[in-house]
Amino acid sequence: MRLGTRWESGDEAPAAVPATLREQIRQVDRIIDTDPRPKWTLTWLEGRPVAELETGVVVSLDAEGRAVVGQIDDDTF
């Protein structure tokens, strides 16, 4: 079992966040312009990491293990 974690957008992602997701999360954080800043939640779905921002943005891994960004209401998620 793997536990998730939460952190505020713009802060350094906790060590529990896999390196494969970090750059995409940083790119999303760069365009966030709200106050207060939304929070990220890291969870694990079928063994794969999923980082979801309170705004509905999701960073996850595709079938080849590459980080992808989408919206929670996309058919992708």
What does this structure look like?
With 77 residues, this protein is an alpha+beta fold. Helix content is 17%, strand content 35%. The protein has one helix and five strands, in the order E-H-E-E-E-E. It has one helix at residues 19-31, and strands at 5-8, 39-45, 48-53, 57-61, 67-71. It has a five-stranded antiparallel sheet, covered by helices on one side. The chain is globular. The mean pLDDT is 91.
In short:
With about 80 residues, this protein is α+β, with helices and mostly antiparallel strands. The protein has one helix spanning about 20-30, and strands at about 5-10, 40-45, 50-55, 55-60, 65-70.
Q: Helicity range of the residues?
A: 10-25%
**Cα distance spanning the termini:** 22 Å
The poorly predicted ranges are none
Radius of gyration: 12 Å
- Please write the string of helix (H) and strand (E) elements: EHEEEE
- The outline comes out as globular
Sheet with the most strands, sense and barrel status? 5 strands, antiparallel
**What integer is the average pLDDT?**
91
Give the helix/strand class: alpha+beta
Q: Which labels suit this protein?
A:
77 residues; alpha+beta; 5-stranded antiparallel β-sheet; globular; Fe-S oxidoreductase
